[in-house]
Write a structure and sequence with these properties.
By secondary structure, the chain is an alpha/beta fold. The protein has helices at 2-21, 34-38, 42-49, 68-77, 94-98, 140-145, 187-195, 238-246, 268-275, and strands at residues 58-61, 83-87, 107-112, 131-134, 153-155, 173-178, 202-208, 223-224, 230-234, 248-249, 256-260, 293-297.
Length: 333
């Protein structure tokens, strides 16, 4: 029995590692499922049921769904642990989804292709929901109708728009391909909302930003990113990327800044003011001709700060571990 449990735990570990690497751009990658392995024979199934809740609280469903009776048994074996649920399908049978109603308060992580088809999951409050991974929900009204009071990570893929962030007080991470603002929101509303999030650390926009006007106020009137650590922006219009930066005060907690534009250079003049208050960067940035991609790294090091500009890289090259050209390294004096 110990060896069987070890095999199932190894499969579960591989499953967790697979999901950690999956992003919205690699939805087709499917993790190895440990649950079917536990049904290899009746003996394996009996051993799995006696292994404790840690083997049962992370579940994924792809092409088929267990009966309500089986699902009730699975959830019972999860004991009281937080539930990590993944549904790689656009819909599921209602009796199957209703099995989660009594345990809705334990759902901690949720991965869905769409909200549509899974609305019964949201019929009860989800006070423990910390992470929502949503691939392609185009029903904007549905996104806006759901409250995520304790959500920490929103990975929204190609979804139509962001939810109402004013009620996402615990949000730390927002990732999305096309940043579309809720109806009636100006970019100023969005900027003010982000600035009120006391734990916000990461913003990634993979494909496009909304139209953003240039901010014409003073430096002290910019909205502060209180705890931001990672910022990555992409838009075909480099002026839009630059205008985004003019609205915010980037904090000294920032260690990664990535700006992408497919067409032409990101204007250095819009980067300069956003970084001018960094102690290691007092004064002007060096006059470097930024190409289509700019990456700035700010390692937390007491003696040195590095600036790296990458030149003429194809899209996606930012994911490589080492750039072909480290253009500049600026030492703190």
């Amino acid at each position: 029995p110990e060896l069987i449990v070890m095999i199932l735990f190894l499969l579960k570990l591989e499953y967790m590692q697979e999901w950690a690497q999956i992003s919205a751009s690699h939805w087709s990658r499917k993790p190895i499922k440990w649950l079917p392995a536990s049904q290899f024979c009746r003996y394996w199934w009996d051993v799995a049921q006696l292994s404790g809740g840690k083997l049962w609280h992370i579940l994924d469903f792809q092409d088929s769904f267990p009966t309500r009776t089986v699902m009730d048994s699975v959830l019972q074996h999860s004991n009281t642990l937080p539930l990590d649920l993944s549904f790689i399908t656009e819909a599921a049978p209602l009796p199957f989804l209703q099995a989660f109603t009594p345990v809705a308060g334990r759902i901690s992580n949720l991965r869905l292709v769409k909200l549509t088809g899974f609305t019964p999951l949201f019929s009860s409050p989800l006070p423990a929901l910390k992470s929502l991974w949503l691939y392609n929900e185009q029903d904007s009204a549905l996104i806006m109708s759901i409250s995520f009071p304790n959500i920490e990570v929103l990975d929204l893929g190609y979804s139509a728009m962001i939810p109402n962030l004013t009620v996402c007080h615990a949000l730390t991470t927002l990732r999305i391909f096309h940043l579309v603002l809720p109806p009636g929101w100006s970019f100023q509303t969005f900027a003010r909302c982000l600035s009120t999030l006391s734990s916000f650390e990461e913003l990634q926009v993979y494909e496009s930003l909304p139209p953003i006007p240039h901010f014409h106020g003073t430096a002290s009137e910019r909205f502060p990113f209180l705890t931001l650590q990672y910022l990555a922006l992409h838009d075909d219009n480099p002026a839009t990327v630059g205008n985004f930066l003019t609205w915010f005060q980037l904090p000294e907690t920032l260690y990664h800044l990535s700006l992408y534009s497919n067409k032409t250079h990101v204007d250095e003049s819009s980067i300069r003011p956003a970084l001018a208050h960094f102690n290691p960067l007092k004064g002007d940035l060096p006059h470097v001709q930024y190409a289509n991609h700019l990456h700035l790294y700010f390692p937390i090091m007491p003696s040195c700060i590095f600036i790296r500009a990458w030149y003429s890289l194809p899209r996606g090259a930012f994911a490589s571990s080492e750039p072909p050209k480290a253009i500049l390294e600026l030492g703190k004096k």
